[in-house]
Amino acid sequence: MTLPDGYRLTRLDDDSRLREVIALDAWAFPTEVAFDELLRLEQPLPWGRVWGVEHGGSAPGLAAMYGAYALSAYPVPGAETACGWLTWVGVHPGHRRRGLLREMIAHHFADCLERGEAISGLTAAEAAIYGRFGYGMAAPQVSLTIPRGAALRPIAGSAALAVEMHEWDAARHGPVVARLHRAYARVPEGIGRPGWASWETPELRRAQDQDPPALRQGLEAQRLLLITNAAGEPRGYARFRRKSAWNRDVADGTVQVRDAVALDAAAAHRLWSVLLDLDLMARIEAGPLPVDDPILSLLVDARAAMPTTRDLQWIRILDLPRALAGRRYAAPADVVLEVTDALIPANAGRWRVRVDASGRAEVARSEDPAELRLDIRELGAAHLGTVSLAALAQAGLVDVADGSHAALARAATAWSWPIAAGGSWVF
């Protein structure tokens, strides 16, 4: 790692540097929350995997920083893998254009590889930044604004489920929500949803459980909707806040859904039926949601929900053979890839990927002619099974060798997954 003169990288092991970190973050990401209130919030910072770039000039202090969440069970198609999730990336505006971000990314890659993490992921504040470091957009999201009373298609068993409404209590409700959220990564049974990251670290859990007034943006305190079956077992939840408004004496309130999870179709129907029928509300705002979330199929008129899509999760493959062998595939395949990687030379070159009938892959170096040529960015984009290799080829981002169109079809089918990758939070 080569930083400019006057800069050095240092590990931030504990919250003794919290004031500096929050001050830098507020420079990089402007906020309306007062500094003293920010200091009182539960922060998800992964101390020990937070790194600061210190500047020793006339105004010493943190010039830049990044952190990495250690996600040991990040869902990929048919499996879970260790992932170093890049987060809290920021450069002070007085220290930009000096290569600090490039050097922090290089350090992050090396640190992840040393820890045995074959992939890195992130949610991007600016979508144009991370592609040049080999991250590919692998999981889109959808946001909805659903009119109150929107009709849902009937689902058997929905009416028999019980509804509980609670004022949020982190000590009481946090474990229930975390358990349901974690379980949803394996729904549908035998398939699971890639990208559905849970709150694995204690810091993430505490930050997720908090409901400070400073973060409510004028809405009420958080509420919890819980759906239970006849045995009293929770089958779904939604965390939400309401904001009252009136328009010429007509109720015009908004329900903001923080996250909504249901483990089966009946629970999903019951949950959304309640959210769509709250008094004095005119609309329900929800997102990020996976692009195939059940609510989109349940709505009789999904168009009226005004769906908007954008990027959510970006994946960077760090150790190509381990990453490709660590996921499962939707169909057998035997394909030779030629991969370029400007930042991690060990990934570059030709690789044969053989997928057996069980969906498991063997990945090895090959001297055979390449059938598909692509950059590591496109391989990362396809890694969660939602972005199609064939679609990338159609866009000119995967080069198909002469006579290898059948190989593209086989590879695109194998790399796909029956459920769209997605998550419920930005981190």
What would your notes on this structure say?
- Belongs to the acetyltransferase Eis family.
- Keywords: Acyltransferase, Transferase.
- This protein folds into three domains: 7-122, Aminopeptidase (3-Layer(aba) Sandwich), CATH 3.40.630; 142-310, Aminopeptidase (3-Layer(aba) Sandwich), CATH 3.40.630.30; 320-415, SCP2 sterol-binding domain (Nonspecific Lipid-transfer Protein, Chain A), CATH 3.30.1050.10.
- It has eleven helices and 19 strands.
- The longest helix is centred in the first third of the chain and has 15 residues, at 100-114.
- 23% of the residues lie in helices and 33% in strands.
- The strands form three sheets. The chain has a twelve-stranded mixed beta sheet, sandwiched between helices.
- The protein has 427 residues and is an alpha+beta fold.
Q: Strand share of the residues?
A: 25-35%
Helix/strand/pairing class, anyone? alpha+beta
The quaternary state of the protein chains shown equals: single chain
At CATH level 3, the topology of the largest domain is Aminopeptidase
Let me know the number of strands.
19
Count of individual helical segments = 11
Overall average pLDDT? 96
Q: What would you say the CATH architecture of the largest domain is? A: 3-Layer(aba) Sandwich
Largest sheet: 12 strands, mixed
Model regions low in confidence, pLDDT < 50 over at least 5 residues: none
Question: Approximately how much helix is present in the residues?
Answer: 10-25%
Q: What string gives the helices and strands in order?
A: EHHEEEHEEEHHEEEEEHEHEHEEEEHHEH
In angstroms, what separates the terminal alpha carbons? 26 Å
CATH homology superfamily name of the largest domain: Gcn5-related N-acetyltransferase (GNAT)
Radius of gyration, taken over Cα atoms and rounded to an integer in Å:
23 Å
Give the class-level CATH name of the largest domain: Alpha Beta
Global shape = globular
User: Strand sequence of the main sheet, in spatial order?
Assistant: 1-2-3-4-5-14-6-13-12-9-8-7
Structural domain tally: 3
Active site: 130 (proton donor), 427 (proton acceptor)
Family: Belongs to the acetyltransferase Eis family.
Domain N-acetyltransferase: 8-170
EC number: 2.3.1.-
